[in-house]
Hints:
The complex is a heterodimer of chains A (about 110) and B (about 120). Chain A is built from no helices and ten strands. Chain A has about 110 residues and is mainly β. In chain A, strands 2, 4, 5, 6, 8, 9 and 10 form a seven-stranded mixed β-sheet that branches. In chain A, strand 4 and strand 5 form a beta hairpin. Chain B is built from no helices and eleven strands. In chain B, about 0% of the residues lie in helices and about 50% in strands. Chain B starts with a strand and ends with a strand. Chain B has strands spanning about 5, 10, 20-25, 35-40, 45-50, 60, 70-75, 80-85, 90-100, 105-110, 115. In chain B, the strands form two sheets. In chain B, strands 2, 4, 5, 6, 9, 10 and 11 form a seven-stranded mixed β-sheet that branches. In chain B, strands 1-3-8-7 form a four-stranded antiparallel β-sheet, with no helix packed on it. Chains A and B meet through strand 4, strand 5, strand 8 and strand 9 of A and strand 5 and strand 10 of B.
Amino acid sequence: EIVLTQSPGTLSLSPGERVTLSCRASQSVSSSYLAWYQLKPGQAPRLLVYGVSTRATGIPDRFSGSGFGTDFTLTISRLEPEDFAVYYCQQYGSSPPAWTFGQGTKVEIK
Amino acid sequence: EVQLLESGGDLIQPGGSLRLSCAASGFTFSHYAMTWVRQVPGRGLEWVSLITGSGDSTYYTESVKGRFTISRDNFKNTLYLQMNGLSAEDTAVYYCVKGTVGAVAGDCWGQGTLVTVSS
C-alpha cells in the first residue's frame, strides 16, 4: 500500500503570497493517478487537479500541479482570501482499485 | 449541473446498522464509478468503497470489509452504503463521490452525511 505524506502540516501565509504544498509517496505513483483537493468547513470537497497537472473544470489557473514518481507539488501562485483551506493529495491504486489520501496541509491566514 | 445528495446519517449505537443513500443527478449515472469517502471530525479523508458503473465490481478498504456493502440502483440514480456492525471508529462524515473517467479521482462530491456511533 502506498503511503502519501504531505508537508508541511500547516502554513501561515498572507493573501498574495505564493504557496507550495508537497506530497511524497512511499512508492512511485503513475502520473495519471495523482490528484489534489480543497476542503473548506461546511462545504463539499472540491477537486482541483488530477493526473498530476490537469486542472479540474472551473479551477482558476493560479492553481497548478507538478511532479513525477514519488514527489508531487501543488502550487498556488498568489493566494486569494478564498484559498485558505485544507488541501489533500490522493493517489489511485489499480490492483485492486483503491484511493489513498495524504494527511492534509492546512493553509491558514497569517 | 452534477448534484449528489447524501442522506441516512444518524446517531446509532455500537453494533447497529445504518444505510446511507446518495441521490445523483445531472449526469449519466450508470456511466461512472462511484465511491464513498469518510472524514472523522477534525481528521483527514479516508476512502471507504468503490463500485463500478455497472455495479458488477465492488472494492473496500480493509477496515470495513465484511461489514459494509456498497451498491447502486442505476434506474433510480442512487448509490447506497449498507453499514453493519458499526463501532465508534466508524463515526465520520460520509461523502458520496462521483469518479472521473477511470475512477482515478473524484470530480464531484456531495455535502456529506454525519454518522455518529455512540451509546
